[in-house]
Design goal:
The complex is a heterodimer of chains A (about 350) and B (about 300). With about 350 residues, chain A is mainly alpha-helical. Chain A has 15 helices and 2 strands. Chain A has 2 domains: about 60 residues, no CATH class; about 290 residues, ABC transporter involved in vitamin B12 uptake, BtuC (Orthogonal Bundle). In chain A, strands 1-2 form a two-stranded antiparallel sheet. The longest helix of chain A has 27 residues. Chain B has one domain: ABC transporter involved in vitamin B12 uptake, BtuC (Orthogonal Bundle). The longest helix of chain B has 27 residues. Classes of the chains: A mainly alpha (about 350), B mainly alpha (about 300). At the A-B interface, strand 1, helix 6, helix 7, helix 12 and helix 14 of A face helix 4, helix 11 and helix 13 of B. Chain B: This is Branched-chain amino acid transport system / permease component.
């Protein structure tokens, strides 16, 4: 009889090994999936994980893309991880991302065609504020009425998508765009463009913000009393209240930070890689960031690595679509499986297997 | 604007049709949550049911087997959630989200070749003289079998939870899993069965979307219906008949906004298309402000029987 026995302390080894094991398991099962789709599994896995970085033909194009895709994922996931540590489940980052992009782009476009140096910082500020405000809706409902933040934040994603559809064909539509939906192209307007900072690295302001957020989150969570209170609220909510931690403050802080970071990510995306507000400029980063946060064990450094890995599957996935004709959706499934396997093997962090007969209680 | 073009008889009839998918998913989730498990993967199970039901119905030409296959596929998918949360003791919130992401990916993978196809749809049930009644016949007795089956499932779930021993055990596992375990009930087994049932219901709901309501397969076609179903369970305070009220209410909002859009009402389209979600938020806030929480005691907490 195999039984699970709770470990007195979480295993440090498994904490690190679990994500690696999950990646290996995903490669195996994902390989089987590709084989079932009629694609050579070894070829597919190599195209996804190896070619974007080292293939002499594509690497020069796809290597910079790694940072471009990882930037928003890391930025959003860092914000989400604060809440997840405290047991606050903001799953509406996609909506906060969209609202950040709309507010930021709107603030910039109001001054078109000014060439002032203040435009871009103003847009970043407005983007962060937009995301923050959108996240404050579930936060205030939660603190004021105890409303479930999971459902409210998720519902607001659909509301944000409606607003996006409305502004891209109405309020923010390019007046010189012959009536097509979509805003002016921000990437072609010098004062508002989120440029590549170092040529051919993919490094733009969003990536810089992501790296800064990793460092700040690390300091916050391991060196600051607020970080301690956040962790305490998640691990032992009753103990936290006895220790004088005000739950409402933690909720407002965690949701607000997550919203602001998601809003920033949205603004950097719309002013750089995406270029304009359009009906479908959002590409699901807000949801993938949830996988990134868990894959990175809700730890800033882990999230940095997980964000790079997830960005790799995006780029490799596109490459596999192009080269091998793998359906795009299989990559999405691949990412979902990764989360599933991680959650599955995670049991060994807190429990160990015990072989032998179960004793009578 | 022309409100005269909105026919109240047809409105009620279409509310019943548009409420059925969320009703099915919500009643299944009610059973799952009453057993103490929070499965946030309803959206993923629904869309898997939608695509599997559609694919099987197209290939066999028989919508009934489409529905059966959808229920089975979603139930099997939900068991992955069951195994992870109940045996591998993973976090239920995270695993439920994972289930939704996997379901969305899986469905668009399976559904690619079926885009733009037409499926055989369910015939209207012939209820003899009832269907011929004026007004009422058109409103209530002119639907396909799944509309009535959904109502039947609600009644059965209500009876099961209220009057049967098995229902009592299930509620015990949900209210206090340690006590249920101490009494000798198999908490994990009960919960796995509940999860399986919830998956099957969500699958039926999804298949109803792709086979009757729309009826077509498009990627991401559930568009949050699974999440609304989750909200309805909260709205209903975990009680079957209130789930019915909630689902018909939300069906009503959905149909009304579509009718208003078609009638060219002087309201921004964005506001109208966001209205089902806004109403959901509003209702959630009102319910929570009233403080009427009747959530099962062990909802969302992992259970590990330490000897």
């Amino acid at each position: 009889m195999i039984a699970l026995e709770k470990r007195p302390q979480p295993s440090r080894g498994w904490l690190v090994a679990a994500p690696l094991l999950a990646v290996v398991l995903t490669m195996l099962v994902g390989g089987a999936m590709f084989a079932a789709l009629g694609v050579d599994p070894v070829e597919a896995i190599r195209t996804i994980f190896w070619d974007p970085l080292f293939n002499p033909q594509f690497a020069s194009y796809s290597r910079p893309q790694l940072l471009v895709k990882a930037g928003p994922l890391i930025l959003i996931a860092i914000g989400l991880s604060l809440g997840f540590r405290a047991g606050i489940w903001n799953i509406g980052a996609e909506g906060q991302y969209i609202m950040g992009a709309i507010c930021g782009a709107g603030a910039g476009l109001a001054f078109y065609p000014s060439e002032s140096l203040l435009i871009f910082p103003l847009m970043a500020l407005a983007g962060a504020l937009g995301g923050w405000a959108w996240a404050m809706i579930p936060a205030l409902f939660k603190t004021r009425f105890g409303t479930n933040e999971i459902l409210v934040s998720l519902m607001l994603v659909y509301v944000a998508e409606s607003i996006l559809a409305s502004v891209s064909s109405g309020l923010l539509r390019n007046p010189e765009g012959m009536g097509f939906p979509g805003s002016r192209n921000l990437a072609q307007w010098d004062a508002a463009a989120n440029r590549e900072l170092l040529a051919n690295t993919g490094m733009h302001w969003g990536v810089v913000a992501a790296f800064v957020s990793v460092i700040l989150a690390y300091v916050l969570m391991s060196r600051h009393v607020l970080g301690f209170n956040i962790r305490l609220s998640g691990d032992a909510p009753r103990a936290a209240r006895f220790a004088g931690v005000r739950p409402a403050r933690i909720i407002i802080f965690c949701l607000g930070t997550a919203g602001a970071l998601a809003g920033l990510a949205g603004l950097f995306e719309v002013a750089g890689p995406a270029g304009q507000i359009s009906i479908d400029f959002n590409s699901g980063y807000g949801f993938t960031a949830i996988i990134v946060a868990f894959l990175g064990r809700l730890h800033p450094v882990g999230i940095l690595l997980a964000g790079l890995l997830m960005a790799l599957t995006y780029i490799g996935g596109e490459l596999a679509q192009l080269m091998l004709g793998v359906p795009g959706a299989s990559i999405q499934l691949f990412q979902g499986m990764l989360l599933f396997f991680l959650l599955g093997v995670d049991v060994f962090t807190n429990y160990r297997l015990r072989l032998g007969r179960r004793e009578v209680a | 604007m022309d409100f005269g073009s909105i026919n109240p008889v047809l409105l009620v009839a279409s509310v019943m049709v548009s409420a059925t998918p969320i009703l099915l998913a919500a009643i299944g989730e009610t059973v799952v949550e009453r057993s103490g498990v929070l499965n946030l993967g309803v959206e993923g199970m629904m869309i898997t049911g939608a695509v599997v039901g559609f694919a099987v119905a197209v290939n066999t030409g028989d919508p009934a087997s489409g529905f059966a296959a959808a229920a089975l596929a979603s139930a099997v998918l939900s068991l992955t959630f069951g195994v992870l949360t109940q045996i591998f003791l993973s976090n239920q919130v995270a695993t439920g989200l994972g289930l939704t992401l996997v379901g969305l990916g899986l469905s668009s993978l399976i559904g690619k070749p079926y885009e733009g196809m037409k499926s055989p749809t369910l015939p209207k049930l012939d209820l003899g003289p009832l269907s011929d009644l004026p007004v009422v016949g058109r409103m209530l007795f002119s639907h396909d079998i799944m509309v009535y089956l959904a109502l039947g499932i609600v009644a059965l779930v209500w009876m099961f939870l209220k009057f049967t021993r098995a229902g009592l055990i299930l509620r015990a596992a949900g209210e206090n899993h340690d006590a249920a375990h101490a009494l000798g009930y198999h908490v994990v087994r009960v919960r796995l069965m509940a999860i399986f049932f919830g998956g099957a219901c969500a699958g039926l709901g999804g298949a109803y979307l792709s086979l009757v309501r729309v009826p077509q397969w498009t990627e991401g076609m559930t568009a949050g219906a699974g999440w609304i179903a989750l909200a309805i369970v909260v709205f209903a305070s975990w009680r079957p008949w209130r789930v019915l009220v909630g689902a018909y209410l939300f069906g009503g909002v959905t149909v009304l906004q579509l009718n208003l859009q078609a009638a060219g009402a002087d309201v921004p389209v964005a506001l109208l298309s966001a209205s089902p979600y806004l109403v959901t938020i509003l209702v959630l806030v009102i319910i929570s402000a009233r403080g009427a929480h009747a959530a099962p005691g062990s909802l969302g907490r992992p259970f590990h029987a330490s000897q």
